[in-house]
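Task card 7
Instruction: Convert sequence to structure tokens.
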Amino acid sequence: MEISQFISSPIPIAFVIGLFSSLHCVAMCGSIIGTLSFSLKPEIRNNKSKMTTFILSYNFGRIFSYMLAGLIIGLLESILTLPLGEAHGHRFLQIISALIITGAGFYIAGWFPNFAYIEKTGSRFWKAIEPYGRKLIPVASLYQAFLFGMVWGWIPCGLVYTALALAATSGDILLSTLSMLAFGLGTLPAVMGTGMVSSFISRISKLHTTKQVIGMLLVLVAIFSI
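Output:
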């Protein structure tokens, strides 16, 4: 892929959305990381390098699920755009995606709390697979941590759905998959962050002005995406 194609693709925008979702990730994924951490044996929890390896394995599983969702949405996109034609169908998806990203921006800013209802779209699927995640606790191996991450990667999340809406505009199955990889990588600083990083994100997440600024930046991303 040429540099110009990369810049005009959803990949960098998806990464930015992942970064902006940090305020949301601290609250949601932080508690899941806590569940994983406390389920580990004391000798692993007390060893920083081993602990980091397990958290990395969990995040690889989580991001793998995002990529799988991106692949599925890419396949669906190729089918759904057939009736409208490739050009018109792609443009329609771009507009829908921009509206969803705008909604996410207003949600983070605190101006559109009803956006949280979008998370109900995946609740049935989540109820079906969530028990499998609980069966993996306590996590005893890196493989289990990876599977644990794969399951919890499907937890209903409006910002994940926002990234998926963007991925659907890629017009290419590989690009939609890579877009969700970029989104997952963008969330890593918040989810993996410990000490100074996580404390800093937690502090700024409590500032209403910060949320408004990030929310408006997401709205600008939505405008840029179309």
